[in-house]
Amino acid sequence: MKLLQVALPSPLRQVFDYRLPAGAATPVAGVRVRVPFGRQALIGLVTDVVSESDVPAAKLKSVTEVLDIEPALPPALWTLARWAAQYYQHPLGDALSQMLPVLIRQGEPLLAPHPQVWRLTARGRALVPDGLRRAARQQQAWQVLNEHLQGLSSTALQALGVSREALLALKEKELVERIELAEPATAMAVTPLLAEAPLSLNTEQAAALSLLAAQTGFRVTLLQGITGSGKTEVYLQHIERVLQAGQQVLILVPEIGLTPQTVARFRARFRCAVAVLHSGLTDNERLSAWRAARAGEVSLIIGTRSAVFTPMARPGLIIVDEEHDLSFKQQEGFRYHGRDVAVRRAQLENIPIVLGSATPALESIANIQAGRYQRLSLTQRAGGAQAPVVRCLDLRGQPVQDGLCAAARQAITETLARGEQVLVFMNRRGFAPVMLCHDCGWQAECSRCDARPTLHRDPVRLHCHHCGYEQAPPRHCPTCNSSDLRPVGVGTERLEQALIAAHPGIPVHRVDRDSTRRKGALQGLLDEIHKPGPAILVGTQMLAKGHHFPRVTLVLIPDVDGALFSADFRGGERLAQLLVQVAGRAGRGDKPGQMWLQTHQPEHPLLVTLLSQGYIAAARALLNERQLLGLPPAGYLALLRAEATRADLPLTFLQQAAVEIVQGKYGVQAWGPVPAPMARKAGLNRVHLLLKADDRKTLHALLATLVPWLDALPSARQVRWSIDVDPQELQ
Ligand code: ADP
Ligand code: ZN
Ligand code: ZN
């Protein structure tokens, strides 16, 4: 008897056995099948063909339909999927379903039906070269098709600037025809590939490029280049070689980095087909991008985290830009790290991978030190711009008004007087983080979280940023009935208001989640910012990355102290990365930039090292601390989280886990259970148990037995629990 084991989109950590109907050809692993599941019909992927089952024969159901002949994913990606589900301890069926486009999960064919191309007819080929000179668009369309006699798809033609009207006019004249290909379209080499000339590289860039060009097979390279050093130009020229060799390139960027400007830079350089994958695509757009990548019809694939699972017919290179960025880690459900999965994928595909950043993650620096990754450095700004000068403003004993001390206010005035722009970076949106009664000390609190709601003025409300709850602010103190309720602390709205009042006539642009909620609002603000003349930008980390503000010559950070004393062991690393990234926004034009930090801790070792010796020195000091404490990358963590309305349930569940870990002598330490840093959120009580091991193998050996054991515990059904392998945030 032949039985199929099938991974189904289900939270259960198991595969399900089905009979293969008599006469049906045996599918290979990775093929989609439709099966009955309870009262539903589900689509899953075959993981194995076996001959025995633990399910009694009478209860075994049959597969309803085998959907494909070939597996949905190419072999390397199939192996990657199984590895990632195992590594991150996530049910395989659910992990697989997150890797596939919705419409593929619903049974749409793997291949795009009937690919069609436009090509010249015999008559078209016989035309004299300037035979259409009186119809410029038709002439151009003819020229493009004459350079691609094998034919081009509509999308490719569109990318090459050929209009549909011109094609239809040529069809009318019987100079072109539209034909259906018998076989799926393979990537058609676009010649010439380049739409613009590459820049001539400086010495460091040229050295980096020639090392990259020499690589074959799996190799991880960390391209550590200061902001503005021309990393993107190195990527572009490296990509060019890979595309010329007929291979595909996958580029992963942080969520915030997938701006129209980034995509425009790639499109401006190459004339080949580009697929852009982001959360805003419709199901149909996602399906066609996925099919095109899988069939090898697009050469360049740019996307955020989940694009790491895009199948490619001829993979040649993976690039992860801003590899340190937190958005590469999925924070719920299938908690994978896009960068780490990308490295594993490159290994399975046996292709090179480049990780780029001005501020590499400590994990990547440790991998350089261990000799696993190769390092390339770009230490100079390309194009002649100078690196910004950074200094601390000592706040001790200084009067502060709306978050700014006198020296900072004066620097703003002087910068604006020179006709230049100022960027004030404040990682807190809203008007003020606290609403306080001046008479009795009462503070507004969220009724559902251990947190204070933020006071907003635009529109007026108390808004909890943790659970989303909104309410009107009280007019009188609920405790003492005083009307002297005051906003305490500074958010972006308050800064904006104070700066407008202090600098009449100067435009102030606030960029945060609230001001950019409307579609197109961010682009509108960016367009305003790029206009000449003095201006002030106030923004959260939406402004910190990726953008290029050549007119900004002064960056001010009113508050770094909070981050210096973060409870999270990664707090120092994140702060150092943020400061360097924000500084990188300044002085990218022809004028040198400055960054000023307001702090009560100007002697804090992290600030001193960062400012006097730079990011890598600060990162090495942080790495030493981690080594002393055995924390990542010197140790390996997994975080067990549990939550429930009743406070005792998550605690009981995780206590059982802790006892099992200690008694099982796995060589893994269990820290906790302890209340989560925010012990109550959205009405749920939250408890953590942190697992720590000295090596990855020990940790994974434990997880392999612990997770199924936990799954079977009766107490597991009374809580919502999850496991986070290599957690990035301990919240
Ligand atoms: P990064 O990605 O490292 O932040 P970019 O690639 O965006 O840096 O380059 C910063 C600026 O320098 C861009 O305006 C880019 O066009 C310019 N640039 C890069 N390389 C060169 C070069 N070799 N010659 C002149 N300008 C360059
Ligand atoms: Zn009061
Ligand atoms: Zn709340």
Summed up, the domain count is: 5
Strand content: 15-25%
Structural class: alpha/beta
CATH topology (fold) name of the largest domain: Rossmann fold
Which strand order does the major sheet show? 10-11-9-12-13-8-14
Backbone shape: globular
Q: Ligands in the structure?
A: adenosine-5'-diphosphate, zinc ion
> CATH superfamily name of the largest domain?
P-loop containing nucleotide triphosphate hydrolases
CATH architecture name of the largest domain? 3-Layer(aba) Sandwich
Distance between the termini: 50 Å
Helix-residue proportion: 25-40%
- Number of helices, where a helix is a run of at least 4 consecutive DSSP H or I residues: 22
Beta-strand segment tally: 31
Average residue pLDDT: 92
- Round the Cα radius of gyration to an integer and report it: 29 Å
Summarize the biggest pleated sheet: 7 strands, parallel
Low-confidence stretches: none
Structural description of this entry:
- Helix content is 31%, strand content 23%.
- It folds into 5 domains: 103 residues, GIY-YIG endonuclease (3-Layer(aba) Sandwich), CATH 3.40.1440.60; 65 residues; 181 residues, Rossmann fold; 184 residues, 3-Layer(aba) Sandwich (Rossmann fold); 90 residues, Alpha-Beta Plaits, CATH 3.30.70.
- By secondary structure, it is of the alpha/beta class.
- Strands 10-11-9-12-13-8-14 form a 7-stranded parallel sheet, with helices on both faces. The chain has a 6-stranded parallel sheet with strand order 15-27-26-18-25-24, with helices on both faces.
- The longest helix has 17 residues.
- The chain is globular, with a radius of gyration of 29 Å.
- The model has no long low-confidence stretch (mean pLDDT 92).
- It contains 22 helices and 31 strands.
- α1 crosses α2 and α5 crosses α7.
